[in-house]
Each structure stands twice: as C-alpha cells, then as structure tokens.
Amino acid sequence: MDTDEILEEIGSFGFFQKRNSLLLGLIIFVLTFQTVSMVFIGGEPTWRCAVNSSVCTRNGTISFDDSYYNSRCNMSSDDWEFTTEFTSIVTEWTLVCGKEYYASLSQSVLFIGWIPGAFIIGRLSDKFGRKRVLFPAIFGVAVASFASSFVSVLWLFLTLRGIAGFFQGGVYITLYVLVTEFVGPKDRGFSGTLVWIFYTSSLMVLSGLAYGIRNWRTLSIVISAPAFPLLIFWRWVPESCRWLIVHGKAGEAEKVLSSIASLNKKQLPGDKLSLEHNEEAMKEGGFFDLLRTRKQLFRTLILWFAWFTNSMVYYGVLLSVGVLGGSLYLNFFLTSAIDIPSNFFVIWFMSWQKRFLCHNFYGRKRALTLCMSLAAIFCVIVSVSPPASDSDKGATALRVIFAVLGKFCINASFSTIYVFSTELLPTVIRNVGMGSMAAFDQTGASIAPFVVLLDKTHPVIPFAMMSGFAFIAGCLCGILPETLGRPTLETLEDASDERPQHKPAGIEEPLTPSL
Asked: How confident is the model over 320-335, as pLDDT tens digits?
C-alpha cells in the first residue's frame, strides 16, 4: 500500500489531522503578525503646523491628499510636527521628504529575507526532516522580531526585520508541507486551505491590536512575545510520515502511522503495509530537477510566474489600505476579513468534483484561473475609480468595495496555488520546489510596497499594474494539468511516468490534458 492508501485506511482527516492542523495553525496565527505589521508600525500619520510657527500657518491636520502635504519639506523640523494619533518608525526616524522609501523598505526587507530562507530552510527540511527544521526556525523568528522592538537605530531595525523574514519564510513552507503530508488526497484541498483561516484571523486580530495600541514599540512587543511559547508544540507534532518513508526510515514511519491510527480510532493495516527500502525513492532531487524535463520546465516556469503575481497582488491590495481613503483600521480589517469567506469558497470550488452537468468546471486549475481573472477585473475597476477624497465618500466607498472584492479573489487564488503546487511536485523535491515557489512569492511581495508607492506618481498605476499581471498569470495557469483526485507523486520517476496511476477509492479523476 502507498502512503495515500494507508491514510485512507487509518483516517484521511481524523482527530490526529485536526489536532495537527490546529497546532500548526496556531503557529501561523502568531507568526503572521510579523508579515504585514508594517502597515501600522511603518504607517505615516497626518501632520500639522507647530504652535507659534511663523513659517507654517496652516490650520488643522494635513494628510496625503492635501495639496499642502509636501510643503513641510521646505520648512525646518521645528515648524511642523506629526499628530499624536499613533507612533511608528516614520515618526521615530522622520521618514518623510525623500526618505519615504525606508518605510516601504522596512516591509520589503522581510520579504527579501524570506526568499533565501524559504529556499535554504526548505532544502534543509527535505534533507533532515520537516520537524527538525521547523521549530528552530520558529525560534529564529521569535528572537529577531522581539529584539527589533527595542532597537534605537534604523539600520539595525531593518537588519532584524530581514533576519525574521529569513526564518519566517522557512517556517511557512515547511509548516504547510507538514500539514498536507499527513492528509489523504480527498481532504488535502480542505486541510491545505484551512491553515489559512488562521492566517486571516491573525490579520483581523492585528487590526484590533493596532487600533488599541498606538505606540509602535509596545505593539511590536505584544505581537512578537507570543511566538516563544509555540516551541512547546514540538512535543505533539510528529515528523512527516511521507518524509520518513521516502528516506527509508520504515520503522519510524510505521510508529507515526500507528500513532495516527490510534488517535483516529482506526486499525493500522499491518498485514498489507509495505514500507520497503527503495533506493530510487530515497534518491533526493535538487533544484535543477525542477527544470530537468521539458514538461516539468513549463510547469515550473508557469508556477513561478503565478506565485510572483499572486503575492504581488495580494500584498499590493492589502498594503494599499492607507491610500484607498477612509479609516486605515477599518479598511485593513475588511480586506483581511474577506479572506474567511474566500477560503471557504475555494475549499468548495476546488474540491467539488461532480455537480450536475458542469463537473469539469470545478477543480484546482479552474479555481486558480477563474479567481486570478476576476481579481484582474476588480483591480481594473479600482484603478479607474476616482482617487480617494474626504469630500467624496461615494468614490472612497467604491474603491474600498472593489479592493475588497479583488482581495477575495486573489486570496482564493493564493490558497489554491499552495494546494495545486504541492500536488504537482513529488515528495522528494516538494520542499525544494515549494522553496523555489516561495522565492518568487516573496519577490512579488517585496515589490508590492513599491508598487503601492507608485500611487504618489499616479493613482491609476498600482492597481492597473496588478490587474495586468493577474490576467496574464490566470491565462497561463489554464495550461497546467488538473490535479483534483490524482494520487500524490512520491519520486522523480512518478513525475515523469506518463502511465495512468492508481486512484484512491472514491476519487473521480478529472478528464483534463496535461503538459
């Protein structure tokens, strides 16, 4: 019996998988605070003229959409001051008048650090095991993010943000793979998407914390300290049974599977269990195996571009909440909360195999293509909508509504591409493959803050740019094969084998061409 068959016998998504998803989901919940905390920690409050200034005589506060906004650059720092609505690194180190890019860089540097982290730590987890690498990486995020709350110089703050990103990139990729490798094919889409409910919940809680805690250092401490207790989860999270089998550790794998069966109140099929040492299965793949054959090359290139686009659009929309108009905290909450129905929608859409006469409309590939195309449409509408203005509430509401709809679609696409990619990659190169995907993912994310910054050049550019990329990526993903109901690939030989493979009972294989 292969791993998928065994998991079907002992529980594809039983008590063990639910507990495992909860524990790993809590890790995502806490660490996600760091991902976009710079929306608040790096935010720029409005400013006003200093009392008794003879140079600055404007009454009231001045925000970005005010024509007087840039006049402070010609004044002394004694003639103006930030309002006290909140503090941030912008107010700490006066990142205005040509220094705005430092605030964008503080967000980008985490994603830039994420790129080598996801690849290197992902590769290490392929070699030494998922669990052995995951928890040291969590500790690295906790230390770096907590220490950044106390620094007094900008360069050290940026350095620690990069270090936190390095470890966080490894955590996300390894954790996601660890979640899905314990689940059978029919429940993989559900479990893989369920993890991101914790991600979304974290963003929603972050908006509330930022609303209540207006001092950036205090906020940073509050969102960093909870990462340390997560290390106790080591006790309950086992090593991936798939990784153990592929690496010839049959005895350890059987113990893990026996534990899963016990917790799920099932019987391990010992008389049929075969975990024989297989030299070919143990053969580890590397980065160049992602490009080794023509078929794999096309799949990899399309996935890389799709990951880049998904991330750029996702974070581009999320980081644009400050330029949409209205309340920063409410906009952030709405664009985060929309991920909840988005995740449930994509669980239903990409897993529903046969309904009425349009069963070929559903699946991983269809969900990815449809959602990216719709995201492109909504981003176009935002780009051509009138710029946000305090005097035009209707225009502001329109931009927020369509930005939220765009976020709904791009989040659904993002959730799908994680599941889709893990199913297209065999176990022996799944982590190095997902690590390479994460590199393009975070390249897109690191560019997103600067895409948003283009709003200061022209308000149409950011969302128009995101729309174009989303449309092209959606079309390219239509070339990829459907994976709904297909068995998990284990070795490089499985990936190149064109013969029909075994399907677990009850799974209906979609009729779709493959590259």
From this structure: 877 777 778 888 898 8
Contact 501, 494 (CB under 8 A): yes
H helix intervals, 99-184: 100-128, 130-147, 154-180
SS3 state of residue 336: helix
For residue 322, how many other CB atoms are within 10 A of its CB? 18
Phi-psi region of 352 (alpha: psi -120 to 50; beta: other; left: phi over 0): beta
Distance of CA 408 to the CA centre of its chain: 14
Alpha-carbon gap, residue 404 to 384, rounded angstroms: 16
Torsion angle (degrees, nearest 10) of CA 270, 175, 239, 131:
180
**pLDDT tens by residue, 342-392:** 878 877 776 654 443 344 556 678 888 888 999 999 998 988 877 655 556
For residues 460 and 467, the answer to whether their CB atoms sit within 8 Å is: no
**43 and 452 Cβ atoms separated by less than 8 Å:** no
Which tokens is 54 given? Answer: 């003879």
Burial class (CB in 10 A: 0-12, 13-18, 19+), 348: middle
pLDDT digits (tens, 9 = 90+) for 4-26: 788 888 888 889 999 999 999 99
Helix (H) / strand (E) containing 49: strand 47-49
- Helix H or strand E encompassing 422: helix 393-424
Nearest Cα neighbor of 364 from 345, 375, 349, 376 is 349
- H helix or E strand, kind and range, residue 432: helix 427-453
Q: 61 pairs with which residues across the strands?
A: 48
Residue 109 to residue 113: CA distance in whole angstroms: 6
> CB-based burial of residue 248 (10 Å sphere; 0-12 exposed, 13-18 middle, 19+ buried)?
middle
The 3-class SS string of 266-322 reads CCCCCCCCCCCCCHHHHCCCCHHHHCCCHHHHHHHHHHHHHHHHHHHHHHHHHHHHH
First to last CA, the chain: 28
Average pLDDT, integer, range 474-486: 79
- pTM for the predicted model, two decimal places: 0.77
pLDDT of residue 298: 84
Look up residue 212 and give its amino acid: G
Q: Which amino acid appears at position 67 of this protein?
A: S
Nearest one of 119, 128, 117, 131 to 165, comparing CA atoms: 117
Task: Find, among 342, 341, 338, 336, the residue nearest to 321 by Cα.
Answer: 336
CB atoms within 10 A of CB 212: 10
